[in-house]
Amino acid sequence: MALVMGIDSSTQSCKVVVVDGESGRVLREGRAPHPDGTSVDPEAWWVALQRAIELAGGMADVAAWSIGGQQHGMVALDEAGRVVRDALLWNDTRSAAAAADLVSEFGADALAERTGLVPVASFTISKLRWLRDHEPANGARVAAVALPHDWLTWRLRGFGPGDAGRGAVLDELVTDRSDASGTGYWSAATGSYDRDLLVAALGHDVLVPRVLGADEFVLDADGRRVAAGAGDNAASALGVGAGVGDVVVSIGTSGTVFAVSENAVADASGIVAGFASADGHHLPLVCTLNAARVLDVTASLLGVDHDELSRLALSADPGAGGLALVPYFEGERTPNLPDATASLSGMTLASTTRENLARAAVEGLLSGLGAGLDALRAHGVPLRRVLLVGGGARSEAVQRIAPLVFGLEVEVPAPGEYVALGAAEQARRIL
Predict the structure, then answer these.
(1) Which one of the listed residues 8, 101, 232, 246 is annotated catalytic?
(2) Residue 232 designated active-site
C-alpha cells in the first residue's frame, strides 16, 4: 500500500494528512500552529511543517507528497537563498497604495487582459512594488521571489539557504498554475510570466519558480515524487472533488465563491479574480468580507447559540415577513463598498420578531454570497452545483435556505481538511 502526504500551510497553522494512495483514506494527521501577524518570518512555517510531519508519524514510508498553501504571500530571497525580509501575507494591507499605483500606470483593462487580475493589496505584485518603494535596499537584494507553498516545497525537497541541505539552488524553485495565477505577473490564459509587469513592480528582473503542469512532478532528496502543489482555494477544490460546472461557496470569516471553469476570465472591475485551477482548468473567484460573522453577531444580539439561531430562522417564512438585512458590517468587497455599513429594513410591528431577524440574517448572508454567483454568471461561467463548505456551512438553516437563495442544487461535503486533502489528491495522481 503506497502512502502519500498532503500538507496545508495556511495563515493560522500547518496541517498534514497521510493517506492511502489507492483509497484516499486518511490514516494519520498532524498539526502545528503558525505565529499571528500579517508579516511573518518564513522560517516559522518551516519549523511548523517539520513539527506537523513529526506528529503525523513522519514521512519515511511516504511515496509522494504535495503542499497547498496560503496564496499571494511574498517570499523574497537573495542570491544565496536567504530570506530578505519577513514575508508579507495576503492580509497585509500596507501595499494598497502600491496596488493603486500599478492600476494607474497600466490601466485596469490592460492588467485584467494580461494577467486576469486587477491588483489589490493582497496580490504579490503589489507587495513587490511596496518593497521597491519603501525598502529599496531590501528590494535591490532580491534575486528570486517565491510564494509560501513554493518556498516550503523547495525546503522540504532538501534545498535551503547557503550550504543547507542540497544548497541554495534557486532554479529548483517550482510552483503550480493556481498559485502563480495569484501573483499579478502570470497569466492563466497564456500560461506565462509577464516579465514587464514583474520588473515594473520590483524595479528589476528576478528568478521566479518554474510552473509545473497538473501531472508533472519533481523529486526530493530521498527520491520521492513531489507534485506541483497549489494555492489554498485550488487545493480545496480538489479536496471536495469539484469539477467543471461546480462552484465552491466557502463561509468562513470572509466568504469565497469560486468555480471550476474551462475558460479564463478577465474582469476589469476586479470583482472576479481570474485564477487558475490545480487540474489544468480555471478557477475564477469572488471574495466577500461578510460571511460567518453575520451569524455570530446576530446570535449574540438575540442571546442564543448557533443551533438556536438556526431553529429560529427555520421557523420563519421565506422572506422573513419583509425584514431584510444588508450585512455589510465590515464594508464590502463584492460589491466594492469599503465604507458601507449594515442595514436592517422592512421593520413593522408584525415583521420585527426574533424568528424573522434570524431568518433575515441567514438570507442576507447568503444573498451576499449570491452576488458572487451572479458575478461569475455575468462572465459566462457555467454553474450547475454548489458545494457549501466552511464553518458557516455547518448551520442547518444555511444548508436548507441556500438552495432557495442560490437557485442551484446545494451539497454539503463532510467536514474535513480540504486543502490538505486536495494536496494529497495531487500526490495520489503522480504515483
Answers:
(1) 232
(2) yes
